Amino acid sequence: MSRRLFKIPLESLNVLDAIDRYGSFAGAAQHLCVVTSSVTHSVKTLEEILGITLFDRSGRRAHFTAEGRTILERGRQLLAQVGEFNDGLQLLATGWEPRLRIAADHVVRMETLMSVLDEFYATTSDTALHITQEAGSGCWDALLSGRTDLIVGAPAEGPPGGGYESIVMHEMRFVFAVAASHPLARVEGEVTNEMVQSHRSVVISDTTLSLPRLRRGLLHNRDVLYVPNTMSKLQAILQGTSCGFLPRDLAAAHVEAGALKILDVQIPHPPAESRIAWRTDEDGKALRWWIERLTAPRFDEQLFY
Q: What CATH number did the domain enclosing 284 receive?
């Protein structure tokens, strides 16, 4: 008896992946820019090749069978390997990565980071950029887990263990701020810990998935408001909802306008180094372009709050 050979088109695996991600044959078709009947035909063809029922069609919507789910997960592993192979070919041929993922900490002015995009795209059209924001230990987590290639504004020196390079870009200094209408604004002299803890504080949520969260800010207050970034933290303080620490330079203009008041507290926020970092096994032209651009003289004065 001859052994049956299975030859599965990669496009069929892409179809299965799209069905799972977008919830239906119609959703997959829309994502793949084809008609739904094309998706249906691809699935039936794959079922005939394998001799396996991939979907349970007994209900109003088709669902993966156990065998179909297994094929999907194994197929995704294969698609990932093919993607890595193709990426490697482009890097080998041109020196430019197919994509570069940049994660910026919440202390980075995104408008400044975005302002250099045209410079980058004038240099190359070979690299797609993916830009995200993190906070706390989130940048380091994203880098070490492989979710990003370059982190900007990451706090502290980074976790032990190595595998990455980093450069100090800027030293952040913080002040304790309240709205001019906040009850603490009427306090003369040093504000005690007990006074601060009797009011709602605002802190930025740490986005790490696996690393220890940074213990900074007023986390020990009885009432804590968690927000996603620096500008939402500033807004919460300006409107008197909360009190908290802000980058000194960001607070300065609002103090001058009379909207904020800076207070002396018993436990000030320590200065914090902000770094860029990248893995030592990465060395594409796009990564090098961004490292050189971000470390240009005086650029940090525009990049950080």
A: 3.40.190.10
CA 205/CA 272 separation, integer angstroms = 17
Which residue segment(s) compose the domain that 227 sits in? 174-270
Question: Does the residue 1 lie in any domain?
Answer: no
CA atoms within 13 A on the CB side of 210: 9
> In this structure, are 261 and 245 located in the same domain?
yes
The pLDDT profile of the chain, 305 residues, written as one tens digit per residue, is 455 556 777 888 888 889 888 888 999 899 888 899 999 998 998 888 888 899 988 878 888 999 989 988 888 888 777 767 666 666 666 778 888 999 999 999 999 999 999 999 999 878 889 999 999 999 999 999 989 999 999 988 888 888 999 999 999 999 999 999 999 999 989 999 899 999 999 999 999 998 888 766 655 677 999 999 999 999 999 999 999 999 999 999 999 999 999 999 998 988 989 999 999 988 889 999 999 999 999 998 899 99
Domain boundary among 26, 61, 93: 93
What global pTM score does this model have? 0.72
Contact 126, 98 (CB under 8 A): yes
Does residue 2 belong to any structural domain of this protein?
no
Taking Cα atoms as reference points, which of 107, 285, 136, 120 lies closest to residue 207? 136
Residue at 291 is within a domain? yes
Between CA 156 and CA 137 the distance in angstroms is 9
In a domain, 212, yes or no: yes
Task: Give yes or no: residues 157 and 133 share one domain.
Answer: yes
